[in-house]
Specification:
The structure holds four protein chains of four kinds. By secondary structure, chain A is mainly α. Chain A is built from 16 helices and no strands. Chain A has a single domain, classed as ABC transporter involved in vitamin B12 uptake, BtuC (Orthogonal Bundle). Chain D is α/β, with parallel strands linked by helices. The chains are: A mainly alpha, B mainly alpha, C alpha/beta, D alpha/beta. Bound molecules: adenosine-5'-triphosphate (ATP) (2 copies) and magnesium ion (MG) (2 copies).
């Protein structure tokens, strides 16, 4: 995302993000030290919590699912040179879309409701991103700002609807009624149980599979379709795109819509997969961490999956950690994400320049 | 008269609520006029609010609290500056990072230090900026119509609120009338021109970023030492972004920024009062609609349906001499 | 009943362990129990809704029982996890969960609110008293309704101004809004303000104190927050409920089902201590004691908003 | 004593930009009170050298002496302190600010603007009087015509008391009489003992105004000559190292039917200012129509309009008689109709520097079935196609997956050329085909264009290089200020004649 510094590709996609994470952790470690806990023990607890048990792994992958969706959303926009900070709002709207379908149609069998609900989530997310895209194209307002505004607009809109329209009457918290079983996306332990395989219970559900499929499709889209070529052209050189007869406006709007649809899928995991009802703030910051994931994954689906799993571990491990070390709350993870974004996205020069230098010297010494 | 009293009351609280917006908005103004986009206002204010509350509760001095807030905020500002100016990193990414970093750290450290769910201990007396009552406010208050204006609108705000006004006056003046202001306006539009004129782009931008930090420090301190009596996790609650909206709405100019923030503050005050209130005839007013207004208005403005908001030309672009 | 080994655990609501109010009450109760019985307890402060279930399940898996879930927001989580761990005892406060291994403790907040309403009306010089609720939900309207009844009981001409802070969870933790609402009520002549707003109440009591008016605390005894400026506090004895639940488990007398705690059961009440005894005149005290007695005896029936979502004006 | 010492002497200056060595061990001496010209191809390193003298870039190596004293110039500030002023090739102005604010920037004279401003206005007034540089100090710079913007730049330098004035391609944006005024000014300044360094591509300007001229090639200083003792021809030779455009061997054209017709075309740019004012011409199959003109006189806009990139305000563009606005409004449609385009600026338009050569090789044709069926894009197909093209056009290095930016200018241009030619144009729009391209590549490109012509393609050649126009075109039209000032054939015209037309002088020169 910053001034290009020539590095071997493999180093650029692997070493840079890894180093960024390492630095972020070192800083975080200092913080832990600062509040009087042992970073080493904390890390051990964290990893144990994340991977130490079947359930832990389940939770890790469940969180990772969210991060894959939001990470892909940010990444697709990156390729078109767009910065979509609206993942939060688009996910919220996705939840609304899914919920509306479920509330109306969950008397129908699952093989009708679920596909419709998933499409509803994507459609609402897409629209919520398309509008900022449209505004940028037609009215010249920058998506970064509009998407931020749209995050708040989505939040207030959903609050209003939950409180005054679709909320469960007399409920103690603004949320819809619980959907019928037909609108529930099976947990992985349920799905596998059907094949006689038993795994520990966790919120991990079929959305994870959807996330993997989505990742593959994004990879296909960006590097192996004509649309992807157009998207990347717009991202790298708008003037060349115009010359090539690629409509920047159209691509911008399409890309934003795709990006929003991906963010909307977060609702499939949270609403259809886990909560079984629409409630407030289910997107709880995943949208923003998606930025960290996309940056770390260097906007490549494979990288994004890996980065998402890392953050999944942080989230799950962080929760377990805060059981054992009440002083180290899960806010730690938010801070770490911030650090990763900083070092992978904004201060990457700090990492890349020395590396570039090292490689240059290496090549020289080789002849 | 009853209506007038309510009007006064709403204006009064509107003023109180707009103060942090004004500080943050001016901070954004300085930063972006110099060409450094700053969506980290939220984070800087949050950090400042925490540092201020922590220091104040330790020393029982609001002024020390304010100082601590400013230091914390400037610290974050320098991170942003380093990323944006020295490292030529992506300024939006850096802003997002700062917001998350502040949100995480304040809550984490707050929990660890005070074990009160991220809150600092409640502040009393000198640890807070108490409202200043102007001479004779009580008596003058009795005078119909103008009395309340004096007693509630002019008088009765915390010292920091008056600082917000001063900050606006200074910002407007410095930008328009001083050498520093001229150079700053120039560097946000065309850094190369400033460079070839023999002025250091880097120094100018760092100066602007630091000013932004100081202002956010005031804003944050006001939140935890003036408006509330202590720090609460995520107590900025999006104010940094509303300020950003106000900045755009004001088209990056000081006084319009001031007025826009007042407007947004008033909207908030109205929303607070109308919460759950059943207005005869209309029934319950959906306060969410009012809360959404600032964002809506900004989007509409950005969309150029009411005027056009054109940011400084070089804002967001690192200054790169050698391709 | 023979004594059992108990491993009590608590999952607090979002407000957190030290909200000076509801959750804190539970914590204090647990501490007392620990002192008296020497039984250690574990607790957890959640940061977001997703964690509720995880926390409950985690405690259940580690063999904790009874597990005390604080707050109505935990209902769905408790319902789910209680099914998964039928052998574990769960106690939920402020909400009814119908399951064979869940004990639901709810309070007649309207009765306590009635008493403080009465005191408010008596303490008020302007005849205007205020109420600031947290999140606008039936439970809080129950507080408000009882408060209004009490105020009118003491002074039929009393005027009660009501505000709710918001419609989302944020409304429990927004002292600034609380303060703004209080100020506006005071501007409109109110001189006693009662809050049922969790963390938001901190702002309410402060604003009242700053303006030289009286506040009324809730849940825990908040008289000490601004000595001499807090008329009294509507006590919701979650501490007692906590102790009771843990003790019963220890004695092996723990029973699932619903227990409704009102004045009679000493589940609600009003706080009188050194901080506010100067504010409570003998006349006020006698009046409130009388009312309390009548309510316990059933002579006075305080209407429960949640029974019909209405409040008699 | 220092009077004898040269105003400027640079010794063994070196400067790299990443891979590109912009200045290689450059020496330059400029006598006090003289007008010194610097010529060289695009990319030869002229601007870089001067930017180093002005402290905008820091040299990797080398010494700078001003009036004989060794100085270190690490920033423009220090350059200004040494009495150096520079008018940059790309103006360094703050458009939303007023003239006075721009002039004051960096020389405010005090922390408060007020008092410095009064002084500055006086100074401006004086300069205006002395040199006839009239200008409204309160005008917003962005709203001024380029001629006046340049005047602001000059004023900036003079106000700071520059003794050495560097002008980087000042006339590129000027009308001929504006240029005349400028030269008059330069002489006046030189007369007062100020030293002038003038970078330009226009040899006749060198001959007209300079006392000495230095020639740069590929970052090296190849010669410094007494202007009186040299000739444009000699300079041209020195610039490119060997005699260019030994007139391209081409047979007579056999023009066919009219392919492209332009009727009453009017074009406004984004800011609404008129760029092309009602022009008419037609282009036949099998001919090369040369479009000559000083850069910035509407050629670029015309080219982009023909390619469908910008929409004309008025008028029609006909291909084989039917209106392209209707049949093929967008650049993509134009391509499918056989109107292909080699853009003036390959870096910004013709290529995507971040793409691999292969990806750049299909820019504009990405949606062709040859490169993948339906929505898919076949990397294999694209690569294979690129490999053949690289062979056919001798593009080096032969590596389809090498980043486009890693190819040299000439090879980059070949990529564009190959791409467009291989898609069988009916009409080929060619902009500055040899800008910043080495001699070998130039000849290659010219041969290709002729071959295309002979194959019956209608070619519109836009170039600022008169020699190129003269040697390639079958017909020549000249644009100045957005209108066609004349049409000629190579046989019936000469540089001088065309030069006059380019300057807007329409009556036929004898
Ligand atoms: N800021 C820069 N960063 C990287 N490379 C540069 C930069 N400026 C110039 N170059 C490269 O240095 C070489 C010399 O450029 P320079 O602008 O000095 O040439 P020039 O003689 O001024 O050309 P022109 O006649 O087009 O102005 C070119 O290869 C150019 O691409
Ligand atoms: N931006 C760049 N990154 C990496 N290598 C480059 C870059 N620019 C040029 N090169 C390499 O340096 C060599 C010189 O570059 P340059 O553009 O000056 O070529 P050139 O000498 O101008 O040749 P041509 O006349 O064909 O442009 C080129 O062969 C190219 O391989
Ligand atoms: Mg140049
Ligand atoms: Mg070149």
């Amino acid at each position: 995302m910053s001034a290009p510094i020539e590095l071997p590709k493999w180093a650029d996609v692997s070493l840079v993000p890894v180093l960024a994470v390492i630095v972020a952790f070192l800083v975080a470690g200092l913080v832990v030290l600062g509040i009087g806990e042992s970073p080493v023990r904390a890390s051990i607890l964290l990893v144990q919590g994340a991977l130490g048990s079947g359930e832990g792994i389940g939770y890790t992958l469940y969180y990772a699912t969210n991060f894959i969706f939001t990470g892909l959303a940010v990444a697709v926009a990156f390729h078109a040179g767009l910065f979509n900070i609206g993942g939060e709002g688009q996910a919220t709207m996705g939840g609304l879309g899914a919920a509306l379908i479920c509330l109306k149609l969950d008397f129908l069998p699952w093989w009708i409701v679920l596909p419709l609900a998933i499409m509803g989530a994507m459609a609402f997310g897409a629209v919520w991103a398309f509008i900022p895209g449209w505004l940028q194209v037609k009215r010249g307002s920058h998506v970064v700002i509009t998407t931020i505004m749209f995050n708040f607009l989505a939040a207030t809109l959903v609050v209003y609807l939950l409180v005054n329209v679709i909320g469960k009457p007399g409920s103690m918290s603004p949320e819809t009624r619980v959907f019928e079983a037909s609108a529930h996306l099976p947990y992985l332990h349920e799905a596998l149980a059907a094949f006689g395989i038993t795994i520990p219970q966790s919120p991990l559900n079929l959305s994870f599979v959807i996330a993997l499929v989505a990742s593959f499709l994004v990879w296909l889209l960006i590097w192996h379709t004509k649309l992807g070529y157009a998207i990347r052209t717009v991202g790298h050189s708008p003037s060349a795109a115009t010359y090539a007869g690629i409509s920047i406006g159209k691509i911008t709007m399409i890309t934003m819509a795709i990006s929003g649809a991906l963010a909307g899928l977060l609702a499939v995991n949270e609403i259809l997969g886990v909560q079984g009802r629409l409630l407030l703030e289910f997107s709880s910051g995943y949208g923003f961490i998606g930025i960290a994931v996309a940056l770390m994954g260097r906007a490549h689906p494979l990288g994004i999956i890996l980065a998402a799993i890392l953050f999944g571990m942080l989230y799950q491990g962080g929760t377990e950690l805060s059981f054992e070390m009440p002083r180290v709350t899960r806010d730690m993870i938010v801070a770490i994400s911030g650090l990763v974004i900083l070092f992978a996205g904004a201060l990457d020069g700090l990492i890349r320049r020395p590396m570039a230098g090292a490689f240059a010297r290496l090549l020289k010494s080789e002849g | 008269m009853e209506i007038y009293a309510t009007l006064i009351a709403i204006t009064e609280s509107g003023l109180r609520l707009s103060v942090p917006l004004i500080f943050a908005c001016l901070a954004g103004l300085w930063s972006e006029r110099s060409g450094v986009v700053d969506i980290g206002l939220e984070g800087k204010m949050l950090a400042a609010a925490f540092a201020a509350a922590a220091a104040a509760s330790a020393t029982n001095s609001a002024v020390i609290g304010l100082a601590a807030g400013i230091i914390a905020s400037v610290g974050f500002a320098l991170i942003h500056g380093f990323a944006a100016i020295s490292q030529r990193g992506n300024q939006i990414v850096s802003g997002v990072a700062i917001n998350m970093l502040a949100a995480g750290l304040t809550a984490l450290v707050g929990n660890a230090w005070y074990a009160q769910g991220g809150r600092t201990p409640p502040l009393e007396g000198d640890a807070r900026f108490q409202p200043l009552t102007w001479p004779g406010a009580e008596i003058i208050d009795q005078i119909p119509v103008i009395g309340p204006l004096y007693a509630h609108i002019l008088s009765g705000h915390s010292a920091l609120a008056y600082c917000a006004l001063i900050a606006t006056i200074l910002s407007g003046f410095v930008l328009a009338r001083t050498r520093f202001g001229l150079r700053l306006r120039a560097v946000g539009e065309n850094p190369a021109a400033v460079d070839t004129a023999g002025v250091s782009v880097t120094k100018l931008r760092y100066a602007a970023v630091i000013i932004a930090g100081v202002l956010c420090g005031f804003g944050g301190a006001y939140l935890s030492l003036g408006q509330a009596a202590g720090f609460l996790t995520n107590m900025t609650a999006g104010k940094g972004f509303i300020a950003l909206a106000a900045l755009i709405f004001a088209k990056w100019r000081a006084w319009p920024a001031f007025w826009t923030c007042l407007l947004f503050g008033l909207l908030d005050a109205v929303a607070i009062r109308l919460q759950g209130v059943v207005v005869p005839g209309i029934g319950q007013i959906p306060v969410q609609a009012i809360q959404a207004l600032p964002y809506l208005m900004t989007v509409v403005l950005l969309a150029g349906f009411i005027g056009k908001a054109i940011p400084p030309k070089a804002s967001g672009l690192p200054y790169v001499k050698e391709r | 009943a023979h004594a059992e080994t108990v491993k009590p655990a608590i999952v607090y609501d979002l407000g957190g362990k030290f909200d000076k109010s509801f959750n804190e009450g539970v914590f204090r109760g647990a501490e007392q129990f620990q002192k008296s019985s020497g039984v250690e307890f574990r607790d957890f402060e959640i940061q977001n809704d997703a964690q509720r279930e995880q926390a409950l399940r985690r405690f259940a898996k580690d063999g904790f029982s009874p597990i005390l879930a604080v707050g109505f927001s935990q209902a769905s989580a408790v319902e789910k996890v209680a099914k998964e761990f039928p052998k574990t005892k769960f106690t939920i406060i402020d909400m009814v969960v119908d399951a064979p291994n869940v004990q639901s403790v709810v309070f007649k907040e309207q009765e306590g609110s009635f008493l403080v309403g009465l005191l408010a009306a008596k303490a008020s010089k302007s005849g205007k008293v205020g109420f600031v609720g947290g999140m606008d939900i039936p439970l809080i309207r129950r507080f408000a309704c009882g408060y209004v009844q009490g105020a009118k009981f003491a002074n039929p001409k009393a005027e009660v101004l009501q505000n709710m802070t918001g419609t989302t969870g944020a409304a429990w933790n927004d002292p600034v809004k609380g303060a703004e609402l209080t100020k506006s009520q005071i501007d409109r002549g109110v001189d006693v303000v009662y809050h049922a707003a969790g963390g938001t109440g901190v702002g309410v009591l402060r604003a009242a104190a700053d303006a030289g008016k009286l506040g009324i605390g809730v849940d825990s005894n908040q008289n000490g927050m601004h000595p001499g400026k807090v008329l009294t506090s509507m006590l919701k004895r979650v501490d007692n409920a906590t102790i009771a639940s843990f003790q019963a488990a220890k004695d092996g007398t723990w029973k699932a089902g619903i227990s409704v705690l009102g004045l009679k059961e000493n589940g609600v009440g009003w706080a009188l201590d050194d901080n506010n005894k100067a504010l409570i005149t003998a006349d006020m005290k006698s009046a409130v004691d009388a009312a309390a007695a009548d309510i316990s005896s059933g002579k006075i029936v305080v209407h429960d908003y949640m029974s019909d979502s209405k409040c008699p004006e | 004593m220092a009077g004898q010492a040269p105003a400027i002497s640079l010794s063994s200056i070196d400067k790299r930009f990443g891979e590109v060595r912009a200045n290689k061990d450059v020496n330059l001496t400029v006598a006090r009170g003289s007008v010194h010209g610097i010529v060289g191809e695009n990319g030869a390193g002229k601007s870089t050298l001067m930017s180093i003298l002005y402290g905008f870039y820091e040299a990797d190596r080398g010494e700078i002496r001003i009036n004989g004293n060794l100085v270190r110039i690490r920033s423009p500030k220090e350059a200004i302190a040494n009495g150096i002023g520079m008018v940059h090739q790309h103006f360094m102005l703050v458009e939303p600010l007023s003239v006075i604010e721009n002039v004051m920037l960096g020389a405010e004279g005090g922390a408060m603007l007020a008092k410095g401003e009064a002084k500055m206005r006086a100074a401006l007034a004086k300069l205006s009087a002395d040199y006839g540089l009239a200008i409204d100090p309160d005008a917003i710079v962005g709203e001024l015509p380029v001629g006046l913007q340049q005047r602001v730049e000059i004023l900036k330098a003079l106000v700071r008391g520059a003794e050495i004035l560097i002008l980087d391609e000042p006339t590129a944006v000027l009308t001929p009489d504006e240029a005349e005024q400028l030269f008059a000014l330069l002489h006046a300044l030189a007369g007062q003992g100020k030293t002038i360094v003038l970078i330009t591509h226009k040899l006749h300007e060198i001959m007209a105004v300079t006392d000495h001229v230095s020639v740069m090639r590929r970052g090296e200083m190849v010669a410094t000559l007494e202007t009186a003792a040299t000739s444009p021809a000699e300079l041209a030779d020195r610039m490119v190292g060997r005699h260019v455009l030994l007139d391209v061997s081409k047979g007579p054209a056999h023009p066919g039917a009219v392919r492209l017709t332009v009727e009453n075309l009017v074009i406004r740019d984004a800011h609404g200012s008129l760029k092309v004012k009602n022009i008419n011409f037609s282009l036949r199959a099998g001919e090369i129509l040369g479009l000559a003109g000083v850069a910035g006189n509407g050629q670029s806009e015309l080219l982009e309009a023909l390619a469908g990139i910008i929409q004309p305000t008025l008028g029609r563009i006909l291909l084989d008689g039917d209106d392209l606005a209707l049949t093929a409004p967008t650049p993509a449609d134009r391509r499918t109709h056989g109107v292909l385009h080699i853009p003036e600026d390959r870096q910004r338009m013709g290529l995507v520097s971040a793409f691999s050569a292969a990806e750049s090789m299909i820019l504009g044709f990405q949606s062709e079935v040859a490169f993948g069926s339906g929505p898919m894009l076949s990397t294999e197909a694209v690569r294979a196609h690129t490999e053949t093209q690289m062979e056919a056009y001798d593009i080096r290095p032969r590596d389809p997956s090498l980043k486009t930016s890693k190819f040299s200018g000439g090879n980059q241009q070949k990529i564009v050329l190959a791409r467009e030619i291989e898609h069988h144009p009916k009409v080929l729009l060619v902009g500055q085909p040899t800008r910043g391209v080495d001699v070998g590549a130039i000849e290659f490109i010219h041969k290709r264009l002729i071959a295309l012509r002979d194959a019956g393609v209608a070619i519109l050649l836009v170039s600022v290089e008169l020699d190129e126009i003269m040697s390639l075109s079958d017909r020549i039209i000249v644009m100045c200020g957005g209108v066609i000032t004349g049409e000629r054939t190579p046989e019936t015209t000469n540089d001088r004649d065309l030069g006059l037309l380019m300057a807007g002088v329409t009556e036929r020169a004898a």
